[in-house]
Design goal:
Oligomer: single chain
Shape: globular
Order of helices and strands: EEHHEHHEHHEE
CATH architecture: 3-Layer(aba) Sandwich
Strand content: 5-15%
Distance between the termini: 15 Å
CATH class: Alpha Beta
């Protein structure tokens, strides 16, 4: 049975929700996917409802890869360009890291540390649902802590049973 999908504008909101990196990074800044405002608006609704957001410490390892791709595509730049490519990239990454930290700090939140048990569960989920490793880890966290609600723009979650997928207005 596939995931139960939810729109960002549903009246009922979860009391706790796991935020996937695809959702967080789009909420942090405008990408070429056009989902920034959707993520910000849903984030505001979650904050207003006093929802606890859950995220894994892996976000902070995955973020620099996202920033690198976005920087390479010219989607964000340093606030004070120096002309030195490395310095400008470092400053842009710091800016993005700060935006991510500010966004997370605006919520009631719970940060989950990655354990060997979670990694083993994620490995099995990669095999069962053909997920990317980080997505499998998000599902493993959801199952481990008993929170089925996940906000993500990643379509791979749709294959996973027993989750409540908040993926906004994405088509079927």
């Amino acid at each position: 049975m596939p995931a139960n999908r939810h729109s960002f504008n549903e009246d009922r909101l979860p009391k706790q929700i796991i935020l996937d990196s695809s959702f967080l990074f789009d909420a942090v800044m405008e990408t070429d996917q056009g989902r920034h405002q959707l993520a910000l608006d849903f984030s505001q609704r979650l904050r207003a409802s006093n929802c606890v957001v859950v995220y894994s410490s892996l976000i902070f390892i995955e973020a620099p890869q996202c920033w690198r791709r976005m920087y390479a595509r010219g989607l964000f730049v340093s606030n004070e360009p120096s002309g030195d490519v490395v310095s400008d990239r470092i400053n842009a990454f710091k800016k993005a890291d700060n935006l991510l930290s500010e966004l997370l700090a605006s919520f009631r939140r719970r940060r989950i540390a990655i354990t060997g048990r979670l990694m083993s569960a994620a490995s099995r989920l990669v095999a069962v649902f053909n997920l990317k490793a980080h997505d499998a880890l998000v599902v493993a966290i959801a199952r481990e802590i008993g929170i089925p609600d996940i906000a993500s723009f990643d379509r791979d979650f749709r294959r996973v049973d027993e989750i409540e997928l908040w993926d906004g207005p994405l088509p079927p």
